[in-house]
Amino acid sequence: MYLTRKLKLGRTDQLDALARRAGNLWSTVTKWHWRFVDRQGYWLSKGQAQKMYCKGFDGLHSQSAQAVADSFYDSLQSWRKKQKSGTYEGLRPPYKQKRHFKVQWKSSAIKLRDDGVLRLSNGRGNDPVLIDWPSDMKPKRVEIGWDGDQYELRCQYKVEEDEEPKGTKTAGIDIGEIHLAAVYTGDESWTVNGRELRSLRRQQNHAQARLDSEIDRKEYGSRRWKRLVRAKDQQLEKIRNQIKDLLHKQSTRLIKTLHERRVGTVVVGNLTGIREGLDYGAKANQRLHQWAYSEFVQMLEYKARLHGMTVERVGEAYTSQECPSCGNRHKPHGRDYICGCGFEGHRDIVGASNIRQKYLGQDKPKGSPLRVAGEMASPTGVRYRPHMRTEPTGSDPQRCNPASSRKTSSERQECRPVG
């Protein structure tokens, strides 16, 4: 497994020059590719473009130059696939020329010196990029790009998945918008509260709408216009960082809790394409299109693998509508699932249990639904705290049940994550 580590580099003349050289090469590849298409009806292959325009390109390492062409043709291939599948109508291919572009180095151009300095080669006769590297592990791939405020180093390095799972339990996870995740392991269930994320999204939308309104009243390019644009970028970047921090802490806490509960297999519902064709009104559509389920699932997947757990995905169709007791389907209202057979349970936990059973029963004949008791125990809740640590506290998640509102002040204090 490969992980990415990021490091802020500020801005230097050397990095500016490298970004301009990469931008110049991107523009050259883009310009001539489309000229061949327009004038001769011929699509250059990636190998041809690298041989014609990247070989001997001054100012960049040979593999860094090839990586620029790789980026262009990867974008082009992605566009052609989406056009053929009809996923996005009106989507345009990569055609714009760029003044600056990210610079990438592959393994042969990367050297970690004994003094802890990362040396990135820029070809014969050019000064290398030297960076103080806070690790003794040599990266497999390095990229330097602009993050909107300064240059950022992004390094990919290999991590061995050498930790063994503590048990063989299977946990089903239903990803949601109100609850970030609902988990069912067969004998325990709990939810990860997502209201803090929704609050940050509302704050983000209100700040963007307010600042956009003020920007529109100023003359384009004026001093006040530029000041407001900078303020907007800074405020939205801060909120985006808070959202990412929340997702990391919640996913880490959830995976470590599953590891402590002796879970060996994590089954997540596949939500690919869920946003297509949805129309629930302006506000609901905005919430769904800002739903960070893909980013959250990716965090769950790689963190689970680091703990030695297997991650599987199954289709999520009708999992929140099918009764785990009798197998009948009906659309529930609200957060409670009540079936005519007498079964009652939390709607999201019903979805998690059906996802789990869908994976466990893949080899069984159809029409054999999971048989459970007539009433499913209420799930316990895990809430986010801004300063919570991602290390496991060793406490039972049931101690943090928000439904237990009659606890004393000392008992409520015990439910707060350590931070």
Folded structure, characterized:
The model is unreliable at 363-375 and 390-419 (pLDDT under 50). Helix 4 (195-216) packs antiparallel against helix 5 (223-260) and helix 5 (223-260) crosses helix 7. A hairpin with a 5-residue loop joins strand 13 and strand 14. Helices cover 39% and strands 19% of the residues. It has helices spanning 13-40, 46-54, 62-85, 195-216, 223-260, 282-289, 293-306, 347-360, 409-414; strands at 2-10, 103-105, 110-112, 117-120, 129-132, 141-146, 151-158, 169-175, 179-184, 189-193, 263-270, 310-315, 336-338, 344-346, 380-382.
Please summarize the sheet with the most strands: 6 strands, mixed
Separation of termini? 29 Å
In what range is the share of β-strand residues?
Answer: 15-25%
Low-confidence stretches: 363-375, 390-419
The pLDDT mean sits at 80
Helix content: 25-40%
Spatial strand order of the main sheet: 12-11-8-9-10-15
CATH class of the largest domain: Alpha Beta
CATH superfamily of the largest domain: YqgF/RNase H-like domain
Using the 3D structure, state the CATH architecture of the largest domain. 2-Layer Sandwich
> Strand pairing plus helix content: what structural class?
alpha+beta
Keywords:
419 residues; alpha+beta; Nucleotidyltransferase, domain 5; six-stranded mixed sheet; four-stranded antiparallel sheet; 39% helix; disordered C terminus
